[in-house]
Amino acid sequence: MKTAEKSIARRKMFDALFAIIGLLALLVGLITLLALLADLAKEGAGRLSWQFFTSYPSRFASQAGILSAWVGTTLVMLVTAATAVPLGVAAGVYLEEYAPRNWLTALIEINIANLAGVPSIVYGLMALGLFVYQFRLGQSIVTAGLTLALLILPIVIVATRESIRAVPGSIREAAYALGATKWQTVKDHVLPYSTGGILTGVIIALSRAIGETAPLITIGALTFIAFLPGAPVKSEFPFVSFEWLMSPFTVMPIQMFNWVSRPQREFHLNAAAAGLVLMAMTLAMNGLAIYIRYRFRKRIKW
Amino acid sequence: MDQTDYVGAGDAARAAQELLSRRALRRLTERAIEALLFLSALSSVGITVGIVGILLYESFTFFEHVSIVEFLTDTQWTVLFANPHYGIMPLVTGTAVTSAVALFVAIPLGTIIAIYLSEYANRRLREIIKPLLELLSAVPTVVFGYFALLFVTPLLQKVLPNLSGFNMLSAGIVIGIMIVPYVSSLSEDAMKAVPVHIREGSYAMGATRLQTALRVIVPSAFSGIASAYVLGFSRAVGETMVVAIAAGQQPNLTLNPAEPAATITAYIVQVSLGDLPHGSIAYQSIFAAGLTLMFMTLAFNIAGYLLRKRYREIY
């Protein structure tokens, strides 16, 4: 009897012990995140100034800035969003609303699941061989945007499918009952109701793309750019110009990588400041995604 | 009377015809839209075909110059030197060591966190902790690289004074922490999917939460947990910026994590940063390296698939 009690007490102790171990494990993750942010802030905050945002990179750490990097990031993200969003949403709609149950659909689904596990640098290699040399797009903003678009396509597709799946079947049946065609049902009812979820997924996907470095280095992004791509608006006819698409570029994470890889400490400070800006961008996008999800979840009640 | 009838019939016929043609047009647009949507879905298969095609095509020309035997058995990788050797081994060991260190960190941490969140934590705590933890995977990898080189390595050097500035240990540890959210959230999903009656059966027998978790939940959810580990491994093997920044870029045939070494991915970055002529052997070598990387992840994914099949529990 004594031994049984002892054994129960021991088991209860292990149980309580594990609760503490679990909390500690969680703390390891959270403390790392905090330490990372604190370290970036401590090192980099001093370099953040108007001059830092409006200067080109330079040999002198104290004069260097991230102008070409943030402009490049913005333009690349424009191309990425313009490609990945229509393609991904269309694919998601097809798979959820139209696809028949056959081997082709199964193949597409397995393929999307597997693409999520392909290392990002491999997308870079594919883009180098295909976009840069076969399609002759060069080491340009359009190549970079397309590469990142392919990279985030699976995320957009999965997010679209999940939010479409959450729309109840009764909505579709009501539309059909009024004589709407399939596309009318999708366009006027299913898509508007799932906008919140799709938007959340798209923003999360773009926040992933903003930090991607390896595939862009692989396609040959330059690390030292002291000019801006051509302006998208012109004063003479036809007023818009797409010259910037073919321009060489650099982006925030590559600029940061360039500064980290230098031995001088002054450049490390610049790297920390660029890291801070990059983190602010990612965190802001994630925050926005959470907010949108919250707003839409509150507004729609089935 | 007759006449009006006649006109009415004509109107009706015309209206019917118009309706028919409108219907035909409508059907046509429906068809066209469906075709467009189908092509978008098919484009994802195009990506895979593109990846595999380009890697095979460029590697094929590489292997016309370099024998596969040399590629697999030579112990030196000095493609950029005057006297080049093409042995992938040092890059593979570099990748294996950093990934092993990463998994050594991520699997215990991720599994413990998953068990804690699924079996111990209450809903409120879970709702707060999970998004915070997922932020960890939203941090750009280049920032993690900075952190590994300029924060973790100096910290480790206080414990191990002989540690070199570039080393696989700190890169591996940081990758490990980076992939914890992947491992923990997928494992937790798998544990949550175990039916409650199984859990309650175990409690009814007098088991503690820990016993239930370790002897009932984890074995039942093992196939899902295994996929979480496989995904974590894929991430670790393919991780580029952390190793390129913090582990050094010299190929080094060693299994000692305290030494610097290049991984497959770090080599690809190193070559891409230089301006190599299109079509040179060094240019093609990054595709051969990429192909090796794909084979490593593929092998692990197949292993994971077999493991899942072997341990799948059906309720």
The CATH homologous superfamily of the largest domain in chain A: MetI-like
Quaternary class: heterodimer
Total DSSP E strands of chain A? 0
> First CA to last CA of chain B: what distance?
75 Å
CATH topology of the largest domain in chain B: MetI-like fold
Order of helices and strands of chain A: HHHHHHHHHHH
Helix content, binned percent of chain A: over 70%
User: Mind summarizing the main beta sheet of chain B?
Assistant: none
Bulk shape of chain A:
globular
CA radius of gyration of chain B: 29 Å
**CATH domain class name of the largest domain in chain A:** Mainly Alpha
Measured as a percent range, the helix fraction of chain B is over 70%
- Number of helical segments of chain A? 11
Number of strands of chain B: 0
Mean pLDDT of chain B: 88
- Alpha carbon gyration radius of chain A: 25 Å
Main beta sheet strand tally, sense and closure of chain A: none
- pLDDT below 50 for ≥5 consecutive residues: which ranges of chain A? none
Total number of domains of chain A: 2
Give the arrangement of secondary structure elements.
The complex is a heterodimer of chains A (302) and B (315).
Chain A: H1 2-44, H2 50-54, H3 67-98, H4 103-115, H5 120-134, H6 141-165, H7 169-177, H8 182-210, H9 214-218, H10 252-260, H11 265-299
Chain B: H1 2-65, H2 68-73, H3 89-120, H4 123-138, H5 141-159, H6 168-192, H7 196-204, H8 209-220, H9 222-238, H10 241-246, H11 264-273, H12 281-311
Task: Please provide a written account of the structure.
Chain A has two domains: 2-45; 50-299, MetI-like fold. The N and C termini of chain A lie far apart (57 Å). Chain A has 302 residues and is mainly α. In chain A, 73% of the residues lie in helices and 0% in strands. In chain A, helix 3 packs parallel to helix 6 (141-165) and helix 6 (141-165) crosses helix 8. Chain A contains eleven helices and no strands. Chain B is mainly alpha-helical and 315 residues long. Helices cover 78% and strands 0% of the residues of chain B. Chain B is built from twelve helices and no strands. Chain B has helices at 2-65, 68-73, 89-120, 123-138, 141-159, 168-192, 196-204, 209-220, 222-238, 241-246, 264-273, 281-311. In chain B, helix 3 crosses helix 9 (222-238), helix 7 packs antiparallel against helix 8 and helix 11 (264-273) runs antiparallel to helix 12 (281-311). The longest helix of chain B is centred in the N-terminal third of the chain and has 64 residues, at 2-65. At the A-B interface, helix 1, helix 3, helix 4, helix 5 and helix 6 of A face helix 1, helix 3, helix 4, helix 5 and helix 6 of B.
